[in-house]
Amino acid sequence: MFGAGCYFAEDVEKVDQYARPDKGPEGPDHEKLAGLHARLYKDGRTHPGEDVFYAFVARVVCGACLHTDGLDKSNPPRDDASGQEIFVNADMKQLVEIPGTTPPERYQTLVVNVNKEFIKGERRVYRNREFVSFNRVAIYPEYVVAFLRKLT
Fold first, then answer.
1. Which Gene3D superfamilies has this protein been placed in (predicted)?
2. What's the CA gap between 54 and 19, in Å, rounded?
3. Deepest of 20, 62, 113, 119, by most Cβ within 10 A of its Cβ?
């Protein structure tokens, strides 16, 4: 939605919006998850037999951040409020250059702030801001967290 980068959040609620369930050894994704299961469920630990969700805890160096509250529908998308260019081109893989830098340097991270106004079809975040990193060497996945959803 905000480019071909790696997406991060500071609130686990945002991660939970995108997490898909692991139904266990009998589930449809068992073959895809076999390596993860082998590492997590060993030494007497077993899959609980109900939907398990996973999230990574990662260290991310953001570098120079470009902030937006949302993107318009142009191609390539621009910042909705200012009309400023965000991406180099329509593939949305690189952010624009930082104005006034010599030699020219690009932004490394797009910070998509929370926008309270809902407009159907617009590229906006309505809760829990997102960080989109376009520099994979600045990402260090440190932990994988397995969790269950419980209604209270």
1. 3.90.228.10
2. 7
3. 62
| R_g of the chain computed on alpha carbons | 19
Three-state SS for 15? Answer: helix
Structure token pair of residue 81: 């409020």
Structural domain includes residue 49: yes
Residue type, 50: E
What is Dmax (Cα atoms) for the chain?
A: 59
Q: What is the pLDDT of residue 111?
A: 95
What is the average pLDDT value for the chain, to the nearest integer? 89
Q: How many angstroms separate the CA atoms of 50 and 147, rounded?
A: 11
Structurally, how many domains does the chain consist of? 1
Q: Establish if 80 belongs to a structural domain.
A: no
Q: Which domain holds residue 31?
A: 12-59+143-147
CB 88 within 8 A of CB 94: yes
**What's phi and psi for 118, nearest 5 deg?**
-90, 125
What's the mean pLDDT in 44-51?
92
